[in-house]
Amino acid sequence: MAAGTANLSEKMVHPAVKPLSDLLGTWKGEGEGFFPTISSFNYSEELQFTHSPNKPVIAYSQKTWNLKSGQPMHSESGYWRPKPDGTIEVVIAQSTGLVEVQKGTYDMKEGVVKLKSELVGNASKVKEITRVFKVENCELSYVVEMATSLTDLQPHLRASLKKL
Ligand code: HEM
Q: Which residues of 92-126 are buried (b: 16+ CB within 10 A; e: fewer)?
């Protein structure tokens, strides 16, 4: 476990993961949730990207809490698989039971990872999910949009986090 942290020496980071190594570590911050069909809400979040030495994959895990009450909210975890050609595939399992296969691109000169769902499974109403992550000045921000059976693609989450 301890070896799978951001403190890996440069040469232990797999070449496929190296372009995304700014992500590795633990991030904490706050976000806001909204959607046309629900009341908006605020949450705190802890997010981790870890890497096992010499594996071409980043493990991802996220937990959220209600900002006012501290009660746990949504959590999810998965794996990010960057390819040398700038494409990336991501699998995520959510605490609600929903699963996602996301495909997209990364451009770490711009500090941007863009993902669009290729598969959303075990979901009662979610049809599509997009996720855009940005890393800039030691800040990680993201926007998650979703489409449901009743609503077109619209933002559901926006957050910004600092590396611990
Ligand atoms: C509502 C999906 C992440 C908190 C919803 C709804 C869906 C959904 C389908 C119901 C919308 C409707 O009724 O029209 C998702 C997906 C997520 C995600 C696909 C990730 C990709 C999160 C996160 C949080 C969260 C991270 C908390 C930090 C909520 C809350 C509601 C909600 C509080 C309103 C519930 C209610 O009023 O009944 N979400 N969600 N969601 N979501 Fe998410």
A: bbbeeebbbebebebebeebebbbebeebeebeeb
Question: Ligand 1 atom 14: the closest Cα is on which residue?
Answer: 37
The response to whether residue 126 sits with its C-beta less than 6 Å from ligand 1 reads yes
Question: Can you tell me the ipTM of this complex?
Answer: 0.96
For residues 82-105, average pLDDT:
98
Distance 14 CA to ligand 1 centre (A): 34
Ligand 1 pocket member 144 (CB < 6 A)? yes
Q: What is the pTM of this model?
A: 0.94
Q: Is 131's C-beta closer than 6 angstroms to any atom of ligand 1?
A: no
The SS3 assignment for 153 reads: coil
Q: What is the pLDDT of residues 1-13, one digit of tens each?
A: 444 444 556 668 9
